[in-house]
Fold this sequence. Notes:
- Helix 4 runs antiparallel to helix 5.
- The protein is of the alpha+beta class.
Amino acid sequence: MQAARGAALEALADPALRARWDRHGGTWFAGVDVLPNAADGSIGGVPLAGAWRDLVAPPARWHRAQLSVVRPGYPGRDPGESDAAHAYRRDRDGAHLDGLLAEGAGKRRHLREPHAFVLGLPLDACGAGASPLVVWEGSDVLIRDALSAAFAGVPPARRGDVDVTEVYQAARARVFATCARRVVAAVPGQAVLMHRMAIHGVAPWQAGAEAPPEGRMIAYFRPLCDDPGDWLARP
């Protein structure tokens, strides 16, 4: 963890990376592909290891991890952000499904990144109110059912062509209505392994929450399925 934390602090000190990845009034550093890990996941010769390896099949090649850093005041508001978009992030934790990207002026949803799983590794210790990860328990079942119907008969390589906006929005509404919202707290040395179809988000920062000066830092690995067909088929 110390190797990854050192690399993370170096990234946060880079003005070019801050200019590219700071979001929501500077309260969130998105940091996609920012950490300089090797293809085996290691940083500075320190291996990527943990009990989570018994639960998933690691990819043949690890991508560079995302560095997600949340700061006091989250979610701030970017210039031009709509009232609805800001309210959704504030009131619904910005809940979303990774890999289902909003595209174009109409923010139409398409499957572009069929992740195998989401692995989060905390890089610093923070208080409970420091914008924790939240996950809707059982949401992966509802999302799988909805998207399996939407992609019925579509070859895996063509699924990204299908506009699933309305299907996704309806399934997400069922998730909010029927699934329990769970706060996921983790500290350095622990890991969060999340199902690829789970609806999740980030809670607003609570006043007085304890955190280091840099904020709450988590490294996220989201490897793509080696076989795109596995995205719906695998457990």
